[in-house]
């Protein structure tokens, strides 16, 4: 399903800063993900996690810094172009086309994101729906789905665009632990196919089952980046994040 991915290709932000008025939300952040990596991002509310994802996806422009994909500068490239170049994104609050079926929603991603048509598009969507546990709901209207299936559909819509790097914003939010673990299984499969995953999630004990690297942000900066267990036992992380019951 995924495109062939040279292992060294990466999405990289260097020196990223973002302000809203006087509020500095990101302050000189360096971040990189390589295809096939799974990186978790945690941190307290307001740390700048979603803003970092917005910059990487292109829905916000940084005030300073550069973003490259495969060493090409995409800092000012639109989200639609980034999507066609292999950066997929699943939003915190799923907003499917409510009146369309599950299959039709995924076909939109396959058509506009991956550029697939006809039988190729249908075959690709069937694989995506199977991967995301939605194949039996293919003909259900999106607005009839419960939260778990809406979250899965959000992931499927992003996956249908044929990403090499997938940005996931709290796709486990609001789910039970068992439901969120279900998403872990799916994310692991994607990683095995060589897709790079960046996953923001507050359910840390679930997130660490899916990622091999954990980044902790606080107040617009990355305060730890590395092996998940080492990051979680870092005194600075415990003080800034884990000490404040999430
Ligand atoms: N468009 C905006 N205009 C003004 N302030 C904003 C805007 N977007 C985000 N912010 C502020 O930037 C800060 C960082 O927000 P961001 O959503 O990136 O944090 P986060 O780490 O993802 O938080 P959470 O875990 O609560 O989702 C917050 O103080 C937020 O209120």
TrEMBL record:
SMART domains listed in its UniProt record: AAA (SM00382)
UniProt keyword annotation of Transport present: yes
Organism in which the protein naturally occurs: Actinoplanes regularis
GO molecular function: ATP binding; ATP hydrolysis activity; GTP binding; L-isoleucine transmembrane transporter activity; L-phenylalanine transmembrane transporter activity; L-valine transmembrane transporter activity
Domain of life: Bacteria
Keywords: ATP-binding, Nucleotide-binding, Transport
Ranges for domain ABC transporter: 11-244
Example GO BP: L-valine import across plasma membrane
InterPro entries associated with the record: AAA+_ATPase, ABC_AA/LPS_Transport, ABC_transporter-like_ATP-bd, BCA_ABC_TP_C, GTP-bd, P-loop_NTPase
Cellular component per GO, a single term: plasma membrane
Pfam families attached to this UniProt entry: ABC_tran, BCA_ABC_TP_C
Protein known as: Amino acid/amide ABC transporter ATP-binding protein 1, HAAT family
